[in-house]
């Protein structure tokens, strides 16, 4: 176990880190909103691992390379070549090195269509100021930075970023808390991170502290709401530390992005990016923050070696997220999250099919866009494996194991085989028959859910199920006792309703509970498919508002699917998509172009 981890070949990177590997980046960029480009230079410090190699291989996609020199911009020019362009992987950048070269400096520019970048015009933000943010996971860092874009390669960085003077720049690094009049910001990340955790955001954002080491950035109009929604942040960090050891990244801040952010959250080190769709007003959707925080251990400290091992990032993180929520809000609360997760897991299994290899935990994504193969399975089946292990060995032994796992592999990559070897050595081998009881190989390399997985159950949902039954049996909606329900109860109520309700039933529910005008996006997303299936006319306006305002792919995909299945669906979906598409990030556009049809 003590031998240094040597990363397996990453099918999604052209880099050859076993020969020459980067270990530190000095980045110097100017952000130009008028041309929608970043321009500047990336200086990489090198480590030579195979004495014979005289080449540095970097990943790029849609970058314009201006010049490459040894050591610094004034150094001697180096010969370089770009390889053939692949639509998924981009182009290899091969740089010829003099023997033992210590550093290379790449002068480059991004192109306006760079897939990691979303440039928002002033009209697309709350504060009427332009906004830029990056989304590098899984393999999009290479669209804004020539890099070894493989999660097994880590580097430290410092950066200088120049932006318009009325905007603030933030990165996955030490961050400013106030604007500086010159518009120039410097950053430092002293812990080594993989390229997919490189992040930059530029906008009219302000900062509110939540504790001495936590805080939140948001557009000024959103900041008070955000500060109130996330007031338990310090407690979350403390709970996480109690579970699995010290937080290793100094500060933990959140950045609330404009609503077009394509994900719920992204665990950029020191600065988690979150969607504003979790600002529900009642702190009901903050498990997402616990999730991104948990990645500070699972993912950011111990990192999946390739995207085939994605479950090591997300499965552990979901398990950890729910343990944090349990510590803060109790077991009955965390149990609701487990049941909702389990519902989503079964939904995904049904969608992918009983026998699909994409339902294995260990994936084979070679030749495909990782974005297509990374789904709910890694999250919920991964979590379910850990729940099963918990049931077999008990919480206290599992917790010791997980804490040790994070400590021993900090700032390193982990692949599925190495994890299995470690698990056997630390837990399974001590007890004959345990591995068979766990059914480990079935979890990793077989479809579906292995036998022996413990059932998940929520006592709070028993009341929801009883209410749902009562209503279906004729009790008026207004007579159900729902006053104490959180949004989780409402989502469970909605998800368990028959797919097809009559328009009378839909109208009754909406009149009693006001779903169509709910301020909670999870409730809206669970309600709209019912309303669409029942062809409820009153929902059209609210749905269109949602689809043109929100860019979170997890909501968009099922809603467009539901819309497509409704009467005259293709036409309606295309009409709203044409209007909404300019507001979506490339990650969401890629998925929806395929589903709805590209713009005409
Ligand atoms: N790291 C992921 C987001 C991601 C995964 C981006 C793969 C690109 C490729 C993040 O931690 C995440 O899982 N976000 C979820 C929320 C979570 C509560 C399940 C999301 O965005 O919905
Ligand atoms: Zn995650």
Written description of the protein model:
The chain is of the alpha+beta class and 600 residues long. It has four domains: 11-201, tricorn interacting facor f3 domain (Immunoglobulin-like, Sandwich); 205-296, Zincin-like (2-Layer Sandwich); 307-445, Neutral Protease Domain 2 (Neutral Protease, domain 2), CATH 1.10.390; 460-596, Peptidase M1, leukotriene A4 hydrolase/aminopeptidase C-terminal domain (Serine Threonine Protein Phosphatase 5, Tetratricopeptide repeat), CATH 1.25.40.320. It has 19 helices and 20 strands. Strands 4-7-2-1-10-12 form a six-stranded mixed sheet, with no helix packed on it. Strands 14-15-16-18-17 form a five-stranded mixed sheet, covered by helices on one side. A four-stranded antiparallel sheet has the order 8-9-13-11, with no helix packed on it. Strand 5 (80-82) and strand 6 form a beta hairpin. Helix 2 packs across helix 4 and helix 4 (310-329) crosses helix 7. The radius of gyration is 24 Å and the shape is globular. Residues 1-6 have low confidence and may be disordered. Ligand BES binds at residues 137-138, 263-267, 288, 291-292, 295, 314, 374, 379, 554.
